[in-house]
Amino acid sequence: MEKTELKDEKTKEVEVEEEQVVNPWEVSAKDGGKIDYDKLIDKFGCQRLDETLIQRVKRLTNREPHVFLRRGVFFAHRDFNDILDSYEKGEKFYLYTGRGPSSEALHLGHLIPFMFTKYLQDAFKVPLVIQLTDDEKCMWKNLSVEESQRLARENAKDIIACGFDVSKTFIFSDFDYVGGAFYKNMVKVAKCVTYNKVVGIFGFTGEDHIGKVSFPPIQAVPSFPSSFPHLFGNDNIRCLIPCAIDQDPYFRMTRDVAPRIGYHKPALIESSFFPALQGENGKMSASDPNSAIYVTDSAKEIKNKINRYAFSGGQDSIEKHRKYGANLEVDIPFKYLGFFLDDDKELDHIREEYGSGRMLTGEIKKRLVDVLTDLVERHRRAREAVTDEMVDAFMAVRPLPNMFN
């Protein structure tokens, strides 16, 4: 039996924040350490994504689970089993994910939810809505409305370059789309969440402007199909949200409200954070260009960043490395290969060779440079092919007649 989503919310948040802070705007661990994901699962009240569910996905979709599933990048969920139950019965669902457009280019950490969502769309043959929260970034990052809107369209090109199917995908910016049925749902949600509750969930203070306090319903209501009458009409179908676990507070709030206003609780499948080059102490930072590999980086820049900044778990001399091997728990090149090297056998081989000391730090960094250069170059070519007309097509308010085929 599931506990009430927001029971003792403020107490839970305070307990988490004693040692680590994980919310939509800040991710940090105590004394610069690692994020404790087991503690997050316990405090947030979500469930661990286990092998039984992964094998069930494989059986239902008749395809190999994505590398992010196989290797635990997406590691937690809320009601994903219910989504699979519905799918097995022939019932429909849709996907919802998003992006807060605060920078010109995406880094690899930003790509992860879109790469995984693309897999889910293809595997389950379902429609997808992608929210660009240009209004949020205007309020939090002190960007002008016009600059936020420009960045939203630029980021949309990177998202489209991930390969989404235009016949099954609707991308919208809040500044352009909010109104009508979407706004009605926002008001319904807002009436159900007290000021004290939203402060307990998100930690707002008296210094925050009212725009921040009013934003959570905007991110909540894409979870409800009636927010998109041009897509779903009156069908009250279920929603699955792939996202990083720092977005969980929004959807704890949403799940608490949903049954009270006649909707299914959205299901979530949640990822860990992609670590910074300097070490696994949170997520990559757009404010520090040397903490991240960007999709605009050249091959030379990628090589330089990996060689100079990627934290190594190797020993400080060849002799000691040959004797003791690398510490794979802290080695960033190995962790990055765990995200982006598709070949399980090769990754196992590297784990054995590097962990035992037979492979040197320079060798694993060289392999990572090759993998990331190929990934970024493929993305660059795909993005160059995305025209303004293609962006307009994805963002046009129109039916998607083949969205479940």
Could you explain how this protein is built, in words?
It is a single chain. The protein has 405 residues and is of the alpha/beta class. It contains 21 helices and nine strands. The longest helix has 24 residues, at 361-384. It starts with 8 loop residues before the first helix and ends in a 10-residue tail after the last helix.
Please report the distance between the alpha carbons of the first and last residues.
Answer: 34 Å
**Quick one: overall form?**
globular
Oligomerization state: single chain
- Spans where pLDDT lies below 50 across 5 or more residues: 10-17
What would the average pLDDT be, to the nearest integer? 92
Query: What share of residues are in beta strands?
Result: 5-15%
Task: Walk across the major sheet and give the strand order.
Answer: 3-4-9-8-5-6-7
- From the alpha-carbon coordinates, what is the Rg to the nearest angstrom? 21 Å
* Helix and strand pattern: HEEHEHHEHEHEHHEHHHHHHEHEHHHHHH
Note the total helix count. Answer: 21
Name the structural class.
Answer: alpha/beta
Number of strands: 9
Characterize the main sheet.
7 strands, mixed
Helix content: 40-55%
